[in-house]
Design goal:
Chain A: It comes from Desulfofundulus thermosubterraneus DSM 16057. The complex is a heterodimer. By secondary structure, chain A is α+β, with helices and mostly antiparallel strands. Chain A has eight helices and seven strands. In chain A, strand 6 and strand 7 form a beta hairpin. By secondary structure, chain B is of the alpha/beta class. The longest helix of chain B has 25 residues. Classes of the chains: A alpha+beta, B alpha/beta.
Chain lengths: 217, 560
């Protein structure tokens, strides 16, 4: 089937502001938006977008699909196509557009540092962890740092969602010295944190769930 | 010019591990063509082998690996790999890796192919991902400088010594010289040389090809691993863990056909054996639509699939429209891993002074002719650690190598001439077209089953593709995020490597591990119990043979 990709273009070296360009590509319903983008790239090798794993584990191809942040490689054409066989692709909101669909990721990765994003190991840790505790770490540890949650927040403001997920995952880790103190470190009121945890699975492309009881640590 | 005592190229598991270790004693930076957390190490699902179990032993792990390698692995290197496994797993545990646990709280282990014991430490089926992110956390902790989305362009070599690199910053469209005492390559494999591969778009063999061009010795390049179970059509990886947790392979008649090929190990025979079995079933008419077979998990129950294989389940549902808890998955073999690479010793040292390599880019050689599942992740951390240690030592003990203006100028000039276009461009030709022909050629003629006449044809056609490539004009110029320019360079790397792979495969007139010649179906220890070394000569690759280190286990017949 023919699909029209309506792609937001911007080259800081020549353009005054972003504009949209249409590409008609031939894809199957079960192909992904990334497959379609790769075809558009053949038509215009100057088109810039990030991609790598094509299996939703590296987080490179996060962008805005018909106004909704997601991963191009994880979104099937049949789920993305709108009226007239069109799909609109824009860079992630709340990120600075550098070129076409490529955004500035440095502030995003920098924001992780605010939550001390590593396990501060206990001196007396003996290498064991109860399996039911380990299970709680699993889902938040699948975060791929794609930036979709950040882009999907109404106003990320002081709350940096990916950093919060990292902080919460570490707060659940019995090996970590900081533990509950991490919740103070995040400087996010508990009710906002609860709301964040509640809304996360729907916004995150990996459907990450954080056990709600982390707020009672 | 930038200066770092140790420069690590590549931000996957081997690179980050090397950087962490080196940073304890030296100034280190990581240069990576994608952000480190986007590295393909993160796609590894199954686990890290280490003999932790009470019934298991390092000795057993060594033997399984030697046998799995079809006796081509160097046994001294395999001994290092297996004996350092247990301590490195515990080191990762203390860094914060969220391993799956046993009821007693120990690191859980599962069975993978070719292993006598459940030996792979795992985190559901996100094993590579969680370790990659944990190492990244530690890199942040240590404040190691990262140059993300910087591409390695050239190794700066002076009198056989690597003194730094020329690198290209994709975002700023700028060249930089980075001067170093030691450069560690950890750039991974070349999976994108094949049309059917599990590998990411980024896996284009850059480091391997650039080292080769700089004069480093590559070895055993003809040994290419084809993973038995990738989703039919997209070739997205379905972990060996699916069989480790009890999955069955079935042909069109519903038969568990592995009984005919590996009656003892069945689905958990090594990958080379299983991939050949699948192709044989398909070729003899027992596949589905003449294209694929089934990987059946339906008897395992939804709870186990959800708990142990959540990623596999998601991938199959999304990309094949099949819930593996309810219906079998259509699967076919596809390129997965490069056994060969830049030749190193057990400390990651290559044939060029000041150049080290670790992980898939390297050939140390622990995998020989066929790698066992769970051994590559182990290799990244064990040999990444060793390379980092040795590089830091060099930084402490050695003086700064000479880096003359002439060498730097030469590197800049070769970049400029590349950009200006060696050719004027041919209207109807493109990187895309050449890439497509190259990758199809490799999958169809340099794949699981090889035969002399087709390999010869492949060598000739690759030479023609190379000529066409030389006539291409580099797309665009030095503009920010010019991915087409990177793609053009990457296809050049792949063409160099394809030539070495295909010619190595043509040269080796025997069948061993993943290298199977229909015209030479037997292993030939008399003539071919040897490594293939290759160095770039004036008229293309120059091959030679080198001895295999055999310490304890003399070659035997390899049955499963």
């Amino acid at each position: 089937m023919n699909v029209v990709l309506n792609i937001c273009r911007f080259n800081p070296e020549v353009d005054v502001k972003p504009y949209f360009q249409e590409f008609t590509v031939l894809v199957e319903e079960h192909n992904t938006v990334l497959d379609a983008l790769l075809q558009a790239w053949q038509q215009d090798p100057g088109l810039s977008f990030r991609r790598s794993c094509r299996s939703a584990i590296c987080g490179s191809c996060a962008l805005c699909i018909n106004g909704r942040p997601g991963l191009a490689c994880q979104t099937l054409i049949r789920n993305a196509i709108t009226e007239g066989g069109r799909i609109t692709l824009e860079p992630l909101p709340h990120f600075r557009q550098l070129k076409d669909l490529v955004v500035d990721l440095d502030p995003f990765f920098e924001s992780l540092k605010a939550v001390v994003p590593w396990v501060v190991i206990r001196d007396n840790h003996d290498g064991r962890m109860a399996p039911e505790v380990a299970r709680k770490l699993e889902s938040p540890a699948t975060c791929i740092l794609c930036g979709v949650c950040h882009a999907a927040m109404d106003d990320p403001g002081e709350v940096k969602p990916a950093a919060l997920v990292k902080g919460l995952r570490l707060a659940l880790d019995p090996r970590d010295v900081l533990g509950a103190a991490r919740l103070q470190l995040m400087k996010v009121p508990r009710d906002i944190l609860r709301l964040f945890i509640k809304n996360l699975p729907e916004k995150c492309p990996k459907g990450i769930t954080v056990p709600e009881d982390v707020c009672h640590v | 010019m930038l200066i770092h005592e140790v420069l690590v190229v590549g931000g996957g598991l081997a690179g980050l591990m090397a950087a962490l270790v080196a940073s304890q004693k030296a100034d280190v930076a990581v240069l990576s063509k994608i952000y480190p957390t986007r590295s393909h190490s993160g796609a590894a699902q199954g686990g890290f082998n280490a003999a932790l179990g009470e019934d298991d032993s390092v000795e057993a792990h060594i033997f399984d690996t030697v046998k799995g390698s079809d006796y081509l692995g160097d046994q001294d290197a395999i001994e290092v790999l297996c004996s350092e496994g247990p301590e490195v797993i515990l080191e990762l545990e203390r860094m914060g890796v969220p391993w799956t646990r046993t009821p007693e709280g120990r690191v859980a282990q599962r069975s993978l192919g070719g292993a006598g014991f459940p030996r792979a430490c795992f985190a559901a089926d996100f094993s590579g991902h969680v370790v990659l992110h944990t190492l990244f956390e530690q890199v942040l902790r240590r404040g190691i400088k990262i140059y993300p989305e910087w591409h390695l362009v050239e190794l700066l070599v002076e009198d056989g010594q690597v003194a730094g690199v020329l690198a290209y910053d994709l975002a700023r469209a700028r060249l930089e010289v980075i001067r170093s005492k030691a450069v560690i390559l950890a750039t991974g494999g070349y999976g994108r040389a094949f049309a059917k591969t599990t590998n990411a778009h980024a896996n284009t063999g850059d480091g391997m090809a650039i080292a080769y061009r700089a004069g480093a010795v590559l070895s055993d390049m003809e040994f290419v691993q084809f993973h038995p179970t990738t989703l039919y059509g997209t070739n997205i990886l379905i972990s060996e863990a699916a069989r480790g947790e009890g999955g069955y392979l079935r042909n069109y008649d519903g038969e568990r056909f592995m009984v005919h090929y590996a009656p003892q190990k069945m689905e958990l025979a090594p990958r080379d054996v299983v991939s050949r079995a699948i192709f044989k079933e398909i070729k003899e008419g027992r596949g589905f639509e003449g294209q694929y077979v089934h990987l059946d998990l339906t008897h395992l129950g939804e709870a186990l699939v959800a708990e142990r294989l959540p990623q596999v389940r998601d991938l199959a549902i999304r990309y094949a429209g099949v819930d593996p808890a309810r219906a079998p998955m259509p699967i076919e073999p596809a390129q997965h891993y490069s056994m060969g690479g830049v030749r190193t010793d057990v400390w990651g040292m290559t044939s060029l002074t000041g150049l080290l390599a670790a992980g898939e880019v390297a050939n140390v050689s622990v995998h020989g002719a066929n790698r066992l599942g769970g051994n590559s992740l182990l290799e990244t951390v064990v040999f990444g650690r060793r390379a980092g240690h040795r590089a830091a030592q060099l930084a402490r003990q050695e003086p700064w190598p000479t880096l003359s203006a002439a060498t730097i100028t030469r590197a800049y000039e070769s970049w400029s001439s590349l950009l200006a276009g060696r050719g004027q461009g041919v209207q109807e030709d493109s990187t895309f077209a050449i890439r497509q022909e190259m990758t199809n050629l490799m999958t169809n003629q340099v794949g699981v089953f090889r035969v002399g006449s087709e390999l010869e044809d492949a060598v000739n056609r690759l030479a023609k593709l190379k000529e066409r490539y030389q006539r291409l004009k580099a797309p665009g110029g030095m503009q920010p995020f010019n991915y087409a320019l990177m793609d053009y360079l990457e296809v050049g790397y792949l063409l160099d490597l394809c030539e070495v792979i295909a010619r190595g495969a043509l040269r080796r007139t025997e069948s061993r591990g993943a290298h199977y010649r229909l015209d030479y179906p037997q292993r030939d220890d008399q003539n071919w119990l040897c490594h293939t070394f290759v160095r770039r000569g004036e008229d293309g690759p120059e091959f030679s043979n080198g001895p295999v280190k055999i310490t304890r286990y003399a070659p035997q017949e390899r049955g499963y």
